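Lab notebook, design round three. We kept the backbone fixed and only want residue identities now. Task for the bench partner: fill in a sequence for the structure below.
Input structure tokens:
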């Protein structure tokens, strides 16, 4: 049975959340592509011009994406600054090359090119260049791989100077009468206060002076509040 692309306004994302959730569970399943993450991105950073596209038939869906117009004829995966990877899901871990021609035809006219931005090679293979396809390096994808007892093994692998410096900082705080503690909040009602506390802390540093800090009253703060709630 032939697989066809369908495209609807991304304002309908909630109507297709079940399909997104199922495909996410069947794919590499990055937490940065969960229904909750994508819905919060659209709610706070969407302009109303984004579209939701999926490829499938009666037997199931093998790809879904949120795309936004970049300029006349050019579409990119939805990529707000708070999204570390482009909003693209596919069942296969192979390259997306075979999926793109059909999507190009299904997008609102005129669609001349599609950009898949900030792709993680852990989620899908990097394609090779060919006629009509160009691949650009962006950044080295950062990750920490842990095995065994996760934090203990990771921390033991860190540099001796780092571990000693943190011990000295804790001793210094204790000498000043400051007792450090780890507090974890999990209830929806506690999220607003936690985001506000984080925003006040981040705003005292260099991000505050450049206007890029999270704050309870800016778009970043509203995004994280929506996501964590």
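Proposed sequence:
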């Amino acid at each position: 049975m032939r697989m066809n692309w369908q495209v609807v306004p991304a304002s309908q994302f909630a109507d297709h959340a079940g399909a997104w959730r199922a495909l996410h569970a069947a794919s590499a399943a990055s937490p940065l592509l969960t229904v909750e993450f994508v819905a919060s991105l659209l709610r706070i950073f969407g302009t109303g011009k984004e579209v939701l596209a999926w490829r499938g038939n009666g037997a199931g869906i093998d790809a879904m994406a949120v795309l936004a117009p970049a300029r006349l004829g050019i579409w990119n995966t939805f990529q707000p600054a708070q999204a570390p990877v482009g909003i693209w899901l596919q069942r296969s871990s192979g390259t997306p090359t075979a999926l793109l021609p059909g999507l190009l035809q299904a997008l609102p006219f005129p669609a001349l090119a599609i950009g898949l931005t900030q792709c993680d090679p852990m989620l899908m293979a990097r394609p090779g260049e060919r006629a009509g396809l160009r691949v650009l390096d962006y950044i080295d994808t950062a990750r920490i791989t842990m095995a065994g007892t996760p934090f203990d093994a990771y921390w033991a692998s860190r540099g001796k100077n780092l571990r000693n410096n943190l011990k000295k900082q804790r001793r210094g705080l204790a000498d000043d009468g400051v007792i450090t503690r780890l507090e974890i909040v999990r209830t929806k009602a506690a999220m607003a206060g936690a985001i506000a506390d984080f925003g006040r802390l981040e705003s005292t540093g260099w991000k505050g002076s450049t206007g890029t800090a999270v704050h309870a009253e800016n778009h970043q703060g509203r995004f994280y509040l929506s996501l964590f709630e």
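Keep this in mind before ordering anything: The CA atoms of residues 24 and 34 lie 7 Å apart.
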